[in-house]
Amino acid sequence: MTDDNQKEKLKQHFARRVTTQARVVLDTWQKVKESDSQAEILHRDLSTATEKLVRYAQRFEMVRHASAGEALLGILQRWAPDTALSDAVRHELQGAMDQLSQCTLRRTDQDLDEAPRTYLRTPVYVALCELEMAHRLIKQLEFFGFRAAAFEDAESLLDACSRHKPETILMDVNFGGSELAGIATVEALQERHDTPIPVIFMSDEDGSIETRLRASRCGGEEFFFPSVDPGQLIEKIETYTHGNTVEPYRVLVLDDSRAQAKFMENVLTRAGMTAHIITDPMQIIHALEAFSPEIIVLDMYMPGCTGMEIARVIRQQDRLHSVPIIYLSAEDDVSKQLHAMSLGGDDFLTKPIDPKHLIATIHNRGRRARSLLALMIRDSLTGLYNHTHTLHLLDQEIVKAKQKDQPLCFAMLDIDYFKKINDTYGHPIGDRVLRSLSMFLKQRLRKTDHIGRYGGEEFALILPNTRESDAKNVINEIRERFAELQQPAGTQEFRVTFSCGVATWQGESAQSLCERADGALYDAKGLGRNTVVSAGH
Ligand code: GH3
Ligand code: MG
């Protein structure tokens, strides 16, 4: 492990220590609020805990925690140890405690510097009857880069939700003790939010239709009965939290009227889409290549050629066969519209265009197109790119690396002794391991990296604009963390490792690059597995 790597790990470790200490301070404050009787002891506890927090935070350069702690110490000085807490000081302390709790909860740019990577996402709240199970689950979730918190009662859950809306809640239908109390809590909670929080319900006892209906009506996306193992749950949580990171649709608009084109650009951008506008039909080929749109909007009548002709040209290219094409025109003759559609269009919008209608059409077409495309280019077990598409992306990235004169790395990764995992725990558990590694990779690599399932238990990583040493560091970090992860199999748990070969592009073909990475992977296996090896130059 390099020095930097080591330092980063240590930093993450200590960052956790600071946040833990912040929680100790908050807990002590809770006790102070609940009891007036032991003022002296509580005053001392609170001061000691806060001093410790400030010391840790300063030492590990966590600025916000340090200043929140210092503010607290300042106020504490005005609370004479042997007296009861005055209302004024109590009020000020509460304000400072709120500040401190924001440090541990809120996602800000500052947190990016000071908190460990596992705390970057919005939280997942876990409200189970069994606290021990909740904590086990949280440990697993943290491995996948989720930030999760467990709650003991409805009140603290509601309180946390109002301070920081979670991405998902995992809820026992009986959370809180009495029958269906968990569902009642969720019902109350959803009332307070404009958009519902996705909830995953679980129950050991009650899988009746009445309960499922009630759960579904208050935002229950999933209902596990009887309860499930943590692996399955994490996969579900991953699904619901992924929804928040939907990429904006890339829409190409060709309209010779500059004013109309501008209008379209405005509407699309305001709807959160990425628009690329051209007014000259002769630019279409270049725009298709440079922008790779997911949806194309064509004006019907333009000087020099028609939208229908352009559509035919687009459809001449195999890879653009399924990109939806939407025509725009003042044409309201239905038979002409039908004719236009028969020449490769998917929809027809009549000018003047109602923005709402346009956006709805693009959304529907885009969603369909994406799910069709996913069937073609993604592997169904892991959701990663399949073999063919991975190689296609590698070709593309080689072209880009050449153009931009940037480094490019390709890595092949293979699970160690996977056959034994299948043999010992069964094929479905083997599949779960493949999915867990794919989730792990997705969450720890950059958006610009590409991850493919290359073969059965073999994965390929394309890392653009990355030097070999950086690629190795990143993958090594992933390797170490993945090896720590406990894979659940019924009542047992086991660990899995992988080996990896990394090759940096040297102006060669994609095939030769793959072969070199594969060679390095072979060497990694030869060296005893669970290691990352670079290909020779
Ligand atoms: P090594 O450390 O040398 O890589 O050993 P290994 O056991 O991982 O490698 P080997 O090539 O002997 O076995 C790979 C196994 O992966 C064999 C195959 O049954 C299993 N496998 C391939 N695809 C899948 C899949 O989709 N799901 C499951 N569960 N197993 C798969
Ligand atoms: Mg293997």
From TrEMBL:
Catalytic activity: 2 GTP = 3',3'-c-di-GMP + 2 diphosphate
Sites bearing 4-aspartylphosphate, chain numbering: 172, 299
PROSITE patterns referenced in this protein's UniProt entry, alphabetically: GGDEF, RESPONSE_REGULATORY
Gene3D superfamilies: 3.30.70.270, 3.40.50.2300
Domain called GGDEF: residue spans: 406-537
Source organism superkingdom: Bacteria
Domain Response regulatory: start-end pairs: 123-241, 250-366
SUPFAM superfamilies assigned to the protein according to its UniProt record, in alphabetical order: CheY-like, Nucleotide cyclase
EC number: 2.7.7.65
InterPro entries with a match to the protein in the record: CheY-like_superfamily, Diguanylate_Cyclase, GGDEF_dom, Nucleotide_cyclase, Rev_trsase/Diguanyl_cyclase, Sig_transdc_resp-reg_receiver
Keywords: Phosphoprotein
Protein's name according to its UniProt entry: diguanylate cyclase
Native species: Marinobacter halodurans
Taxonomic path: Bacteria, Pseudomonadati, Pseudomonadota, Gammaproteobacteria, Pseudomonadales
